[in-house]
Prior knowledge:
This protein is α+β, with helices and mostly antiparallel strands. The chain is built from four helices and nine strands; from the N terminus they run H-H-E-H-E-E-E-E-E-E-E-E-H. The strands form two sheets. Strands 1, 2, 3, 8 and 9 form a five-stranded antiparallel β-sheet that branches. Strands 4-5-6-7 form a four-stranded antiparallel β-sheet, with no helix packed on it. Helix 1 runs antiparallel to helix 4 (142-150). The radius of gyration is 16 Å and the shape is elongated.
Amino acid sequence: MKYLATALILALGAWPALAESPLVAVKVDIYRMQTDQSPPNIIAAFNRAELEHQPRLITSAGKEARIEIGEQDKHLLSVTLFPSDDGEYYSANMNYKIKQQDWLQASSESEQIPLGQSVLMSSHVGEQLILMQVTGKRFHDLDTATQWLEID
């Protein structure tokens, strides 16, 4: 809920800019599991992984948005979303890095995801498997977008 409140505060602060173009609301569910190898079946891995974070955000079409979670000197998960100018689809990039003796890093990217559809992404670094489900939807008003983000 903390992430939703932060995203909504940012969106409200930019309301004049948001009113001119469609809004894109995005739900991100982030899971983690310990494993020394990438799973052969990503769906089975999601079912076994533990849900860690559920950030939510609202941005306007054509405006890049980023979520960062972690501790700067230990591990950092960055999720970058790129909604299209017309708000019909978005691209997502997940980057995870962890500090062991040196920094280890992996990323996953998905392009032109139609709004309303979910995409599953994963990054495997060391013994950490990060799994992410992203769902985005287009709206024309802030109230409807906010209500959709609160459903779950």
